[in-house]
Amino acid sequence: MSSPRDPYEHGGGPARREAFDVVVLRQDGPGKPSYWERHRVAYEPDMNVISVLQRIAANARTAEGKPVAPIAWECNCLEEVCGACTMVINRRVRQACTALVDRLLDEHPGQIELRPMSKFPVIRDLVVDRSRMFETLKKIRAWLPVDSYLDMGPGPRQSQDNQELAYVLSKCMTCGCCLEACPQYVKIELQRQPGETDEQFDQRQKAAFDRGFLGAFAIAQIDLFNTNPIGEMTSRERLDALVAEGGIQVCGNAQNCVRVCPKEIPLTRSIARAGRIATRHVLKRWFDR
Amino acid sequence: MEANCLAPSLGRYEFVLRRLHSLTGLMPIGGYLAFHLLTNASIIDGVEVYQRRADQIHELGVTTVVLLLEWPIIFIPILFHGILGIVIVSRGKRNVADYPFIGNIRYTLQRWTGVIAFLFIIWHVFHMHGWFKASWWVENVVRPLGGGRFDPHNAYTAAQAIQESVWVQAMFFVGVLASVYHFANGLWTMGITWGVWTSPRAQRWANVPCAAVGVFLACAGVAALIGMLVADKPGAGQVPPVQTQDSRIPTPTASVPSPVEFANPARIEVSRFPSSPPQRAGRTT
Question: Is residue A111 located within the same domain as residue A232?
Answer without folding.
Answer: no
